[in-house]
Amino acid sequence: MFRGVERPSPQDDEDTLLQLQESFVGGRQPAAKSLRIAGTGKPIKDPAKSARLTTAADNGKKRSIFAERRAREQGAQDVAESKEASEIPRLHREVVSADALFGEVMSDVHERSPDPPSMMAPTGPHPSAGFPTVVHRSQRLKQIRACSTRITESVHQRSHFNEFLSLEGGDESPDIHGQNLQTLQSMSAQEIEEAQAEIREKLDPSLIQMLLQRANQKYGRDESHVEDLVEPPVVSQQPCLGQAREHSSVRSAGGRSELTAPDLSTSMKDNINLRNPKSFIETWIPADKAEHEKLEWIGFMEDDIVDNSAVTNAAELRFDLSGRIIERGTQIPVHRGLHHHGVDPETPGYTLDELLHLSRSTVQAQRAASVRVLGAIIADIYAGAYGKARGIALIWHSLRANVLLHLRFALDDSHETVVTNSLAALAASVGTGSLTDNDEEQCWDQVLLTRLSYRAYAISVSNQADFKSRASGREPSSEKIDHDGSIGSVIQLIRRDAILGLISTDILARFRYLLQSRNLPAEAVNDILQILIRICRHSHAAAVQIAECPGLVDVVHNKFLRGPWPSISKSQSTASLNAVKLLRLLCQSGRDIAESLIRFHIVVDAMKFIMLAPDQLTDSSRELSWYLQAEVWSLLGVLFSYGLCIQLFNDYHSAILSCALKLFGSEVPEASPSTPTAIARSQILLLRMITAFLKSAEGMSDTCPPNHALRPFADLVLKKVLAGQRERNASGNLLHSAAFDMLALYGKQVLADPTDDGFNFIQEATSIMDYIRCTPMPNFSVARSSIEVIANQVPVATPPLGQHLVGLQNKPRTSIATAMLELNAYFEYGCSLMTLCSSFVGIGREWDEFVSEQLSTDQVLGWVTGTAESLDRIAVHSDILRWFLPGRGMLLCSWLLASEILQSHGTVNYSMDGIYGCAVALAALPELLPGEECVASKLLNRFILHPRVQNTLIAMDESLVQVETQELAPQRLQEFLDYGLYDNASLKRSEGLFGREARGLDSLILDEQEGNASLPVRLDWIMSPFGLLLAESKKFGHLLIGAKREQKNREDANDLVAECLALGERVDRIVRPQWYMTRLPDPVKIARLMCIFLLPSSTDEEMFRRTDINKLLSSGLLRYGTRSHRWNDSELDEACGGSGKFFQLYQELVEHYSAVSFGDEVFARYLLLPLAMHYPSDYRELFWDHLRELLHLFTMEKSQLPTADDAAQFYYPYETEERVLLLYASALASGKVTSSSTPFLYDVAVHHLSAALADESPESVGVRFKKRSVQLAASKIAKDILDDIVWRARSDGNGRTVECAK
């Protein structure tokens, strides 16, 4: 009867448990009895029962478990000592067949009695039934010491192989090996061969090979007898053990089974394709029984290793645990942990997909390691470590594989290491964090030092696309993603914009929880803060999400701003620095957010970082303290730009002044090489903060402090900055730029209130003039060398990695931005110098003469002219890299405005050349950036479209076309351009940035909303009315702009077009074209002029048939067509707004010509331009087919074409499209094209037909064409035309005759 196992209960004591254990062991009999055998081969008898443990009843006293165990061990030791010495084992054994041992498996198993082990022995007896054995700690300590002694002795004993054979005790493997050697020596050669055959039959060949390799490694390859024991298997014949077992012939002989492989002849072996699994399977398995799909794994791997550098598929790249690419063929040991994957296990490293799979593993160590590697890979992509091709391929593969979403899932992990690694990887994904060098963030911090320092650019994907579309004249994509909370919509958002996608996953709430409830490492905390900083830079909407996330700002405030200062550790100081920067960016994002932070005293809590001078801190905290102080200055400057916290300056006036005195008075410490940079940054931002305060304080006399409160700061500038030696580097230029701007505004305030007992600016003007004369602007050659370096880097720099990433996205672009900032410091210095000079024109004749002298010096004019001439060297007009060079256009504007102020004042004899001024304005206008709309308005209305300037241009050339427009047409054009380039909202925002209407400034982050018009303008802004009018056309509005607008026809369209064409002609023929018009390709201008033929007229007559417009179109064709030489359709497509757009425009032009042209010659000449041979044949086919009935209207000769100097582009290379050749023949046969009426078209058609007839190459278009042309010529083409074609076919143009069949 079956009786179950009695199991212990929680109430059982130790004695009960021991009884249960003995009962369990006693009730279970093993399948085979185990007998221990001594060296003589006789079984050892069981120890006497008297030597076993006596029970508690024997002595009447219960003993502990450990006492009982010690008694048992002592009895066993007594029995062992009473045994007789064992005999030395015999080395000779009979060779017994392996099959003979099979019958003894279920019988008694005889074991040898091993001697005491030479290596570490177990610390206690092994449990026989699975129950753990309890060991007293004193007994454990004795056993460990004894084992340690034996290990030390054994190390000295096993030095040589021969010594193993003479040892008594120790490891038995040498003894067994010696017995095997003696057995082999006693066997004959035939017996050895039989034994080897038997071993090969029983064992896997790969196992035999492995044993041989181990023997070679253990005993050395000089032991030749070891390799002779077994013949190595032929792997090429038996690639798989399963194949040999299944398809071999088995025969019994003498009780032994023998397995032999099929006998393959040499020729048969050669015919087997071991690289092809199918061929190999069919060799061993009958074709009717082979299952190829299941047996593909047995095929051999390719020996040809493919270099990973040739792998273009990012999914095939493999990485090590540091994120480095492992090139295929690299031999890496298995113990490195790079072979633990299912796909290609013989190849070390992990693919991106395998890492993503491991990131969702149930083992936290695998999750942590995979996420860490993913972060390293992303950081290396940003750093450009993988090169251009691999970097782009990897980022797009990661986009398709949803790497960012996997990292976001890892952020919700419960394990701290996984969370920390995911934070680092997420930070690297947005271009910041501990895994990156943070160069891009440093570039954005450098932008804070410029004149419009508190203007911030939104780095979102949509804002970058909007910037590019405005700069290129193309409409941005208006596709939107409806986020419904599903995982699919989140994936779409991440693929469109990484930061927007992360925000949609409630990552901000997760950050709040981690900061508030988890004790994360310092690096992880800073990664969170840097990600939040990156989100703030993304857009106004993203910053609002941070501000509105419940509790997030409070956590940052309480954790990093309310703590003691100075901080205990450097990591805490770094976190405080990032927290203040985050608050500053939140304030920049919107006035309402700034007001909330002020209301909750967050700004006041940040003021403590300026209360303690950094030079009083230790070396470890000093540098960070300088940066923290600079961030506080920038935070105050942002608030002052809104007109907020004016009273805060009064409350902390003494503290700010004390900091300024120490900042400009103390010597630079020697703590760190970067400390001077930190101090210079704090100095510059302090002056920028005071400048912002002065801008906003105008008109706020109730809250603005009196002049004497600001006088100490002005004294510091004069005595410490201007009186000191100026350093000719970026920091020195920016410091003096900030000093000039502050003095300019403070001087205006003093001059506006001369009764106030304060700073006497007129008396200090002399020292300012002396300083400027002693340190003039350097020659432009300093900037020209930097411009050349940048110009060479821009074309080869890696383009943006992916459409979903934000910011600069890679290291090469960051390097260009850094170089641009270095160059921009010179432009900033020049801008501030011009502003200072113009601010005090009229205070005295001496100052006015000084200003006139400065504006006319060779250095200043060299900078103006050199800047205008070098604008096209750095071709980044539609790239956000322009954000890092804001001073280039402003330098030209500052010189123009200063010259105008000085000229209009009239105290000195100074006159600016109007033509030169117009040229400078034309060069500067496209260079202005968002936020500078008020400056663009001044350039447009004062220096370009002003009647005085236009009348001067007209008087310069009497051959200009006189337009027949109404009196108000120029004014309407001015309004059209003024409101078309920027709207009222952008203009109002710009006024606030420049210090006027500061209370109306809503945000300092320039994030353009949909439908808003803003800078930058495109290079062909003069011709922009043509495209805008065409976009408003009811019939042709779809050609240039994809988004639908309100379609209407303007009543003054004809006058606007005439005035715009006249303006372009004046600019081209009088103003220096190399400063403006040459930056724009001629095909773009031609495409813009072609739009005029489709514009709806405000009269009954077609617009292009109006006399003055027709003349201006003809003049424009001559100017731009002559210089165009080799155009390409990609340039024209770019001009029209996208791929294939120009062909659509050309289709409409052809149809419009056939409908309303009445044979207009100017219209016809424009249609001929795309017939050049470097354009696709679609244009020629469209022209000759659709206009076949109107070809007789194209009467112009070759000399009348604008491209007459380069007429070969219509003839070479020869036409190869048969369809076009047949159209040529049809036109000649119909009589629409003749040598007398249409000489140019006739010459083109005959030229290409003759070339096709002369082509004798097999299967060429000429051979196919001859069959049709002969039939067509016999029936339709006149004989004289056919003779002309044949005659030209006989000659190749160089007098050489070519055979041609008629």
TrEMBL record:
Region annotation (Disordered) ranges: 28-86, 238-264
Pfam families tied to this protein: RPAP1_C, RPAP1_N, TPR_RPAP1
Location (main, coarse): nucleus
Location of the RPAP1 C-terminal domain: 316-379
Residues annotated as domain RPAP1 N-terminal: 175-218
Residue spans of biased composition, Basic and acidic residues class: 59-86
Keywords: Nucleus, Transcription
UniProt domain RPAP1/MINIYO-like TPR repeats: residue ranges: 1044-1253
Subcellular location: Nucleus
BP GO annotations: transcription by RNA polymerase II
Similarity comment text for this entry: Belongs to the RPAP1 family.
UniProt cross-references to PANTHER family, sorted A to Z: RNA POLYMERASE II-ASSOCIATED PROTEIN 1
Name of the molecule in the record: RNA polymerase II-associated protein 1 C-terminal domain-containing protein
Organism encoding this protein: Spizellomyces punctatus (strain DAOM BR117)
